[in-house]
Amino acid sequence: MGEKYVGMDVHQSSLVIEVMNEKGTCQMQTIIPTRVDAVREFFGGLRGKVHVVFEEGTMAEWLYGLLRPLVAEVVVCNPRRNKLLTSGNHGDKVDAHNLAELLRLGSVKPVYHERQGLQVLKELVHNYDALTKDRTRVMNRIKALYRGRGIPCAGNDVYYKRNREQWLNKLIEEGRRQRAGFFYQQLDHLTSLCRESRQAMLAEARRHAACKILRQISVLGPVRTAQIMAAVVTPHRFRTKRQFWPYVGLGVVTRTSSEYEFADGRVQRRKKVVGTRGLNDNYSHRLKYVFKSAAIDGMRREPFQGYYATLLDKGMRPEMARLTLARKIAAVTLAIWKTGQRFDAARLSAATG
Questions:
Q1: Which of 115, 173, 175, 184 has a CA between 20 and 30 Å from the CA of residue 45?
Q2: Kindly report the CA angle at 337 between 336 and 341, in degrees rounded to 5?
Q3: Rounded-to-integer distance, Cα 228 and Cα 213, Å
């Protein structure tokens, strides 16, 4: 029977599939409908040790859960890393073939998809984030109406119900006033939904032991804690903080070029290498926002305030000190979550370098 490597190009209505053996020979190409019964029937008919790969997308989590009990291995790969798929001819069958080949060669970058009993929390966090963004969008539209007529509207007073009639009277045009009224109704409804979704999210987060552990960190409030739990799922995914930092967008990346030169016929490294340093560009946007905002709070709150002040006293630029503080909070979060120990502010400097 041997090993089989299955590449899938996933679409809303169809799955384009190629089955490849361990020698790289295509054994089958087919197209099946994107339905539970069709997927189970196809993979139930495959013999041998079956490995499946497809790219991360809107249906990735559903497919992962469906295929996991049917095959030996399911790999949901990161499409940003599949540079080979963007070169040459492009098509559904070509993409399925390339995915199967990359899987056979061990050249795909997997995306974590184990649930660990946090599926409800993940959905509630997604819901809260979406509603919050919608509410912010409506608030920006309300202010745009006033700014468009040269009416100053700084601060939050423009949103309060008690002053709403006064603000509406500042809009002279009838159509613009009516438009603002509809926006206010939408804002009120979204505010109520945000409040309800927040309560549901926090209630679900409190059901898990990790919530109590992470809440020991003063700058991680209940919302940030729930967002971290939903995104990370388990801290044991990361061996050390150096694997965790890139995931949250705080990993420092160095890019160099022209590192070596010839001198007297021998290769030697240049004394001055041309290079740039910056943060990694492939990360969880939600977690980067969480830890950056936590660092801003930590600048004004002990025990992190003292750590931030120490960095400034050493001559570090404020923006670099904030980054270092965010990395510190991320490292402490991972450390106490993995061990389950109490957060000790006196050992703060030992948590990370």
A1: 115
A2: 45
A3: 12
> Which phi-psi region, left, alpha or beta, contains residue 343 (left: φ > 0; alpha: ψ -120 to 50)?
beta
Spatial neighbors of 332 by CB under 8 A, at least 6 apart, are 217, 343, 348, 351, 352
Q: What is the largest CA-CA distance in the chain?
A: 83
Burial of 291 (0-12, 13-18, 19+ CB in 10 A): buried
Q: Which residues contact 324 (CB under 8 A, 6 or more apart)?
A: 311, 316
Residues 66, 72, 78, 84, CA torsion sign: negative
Compute the distance between CA of residue 332 and CA of residue 349 in angstroms, rounded to an integer.
10
330: Cβ contacts below 8 Å, ≥ 6 apart: 241, 244, 245, 248, 250, 291
pTM comes to 0.80
Selection from 77, 106, 65, 81 nearest residue 9 by Cα: 77
Spell out the alpha helix ranges (H) of 5-118.
36-44, 60-67, 92-105
Closest CA to 63 of 53, 78, 48, 51: 53
Q: What are 298's strand-pairing partners?
A: none
Query: What are the per-10-residue average pLDDT scores of the chain (353 residues)?
Result: 90 94 93 95 93 92 93 89 61 86 85 80 96 97 95 94 93 94 97 98 96 94 96 93 94 79 80 75 91 95 90 93 95 94 73 42
The answer to whether the CB of 194 falls within 8 A of the CB of 139 is: no
In 3-state terms, what secondary structure has residue 340?
Answer: coil
Contact status, residue 244 vs residue 238, Cβ threshold 8 Å: yes
- Distances in Å between the Cα of 287 and the Cα atoms of 160, 226, 250, 253, 351 are 31, 11, 10, 18, 19
Let me know how long the chain is.
353
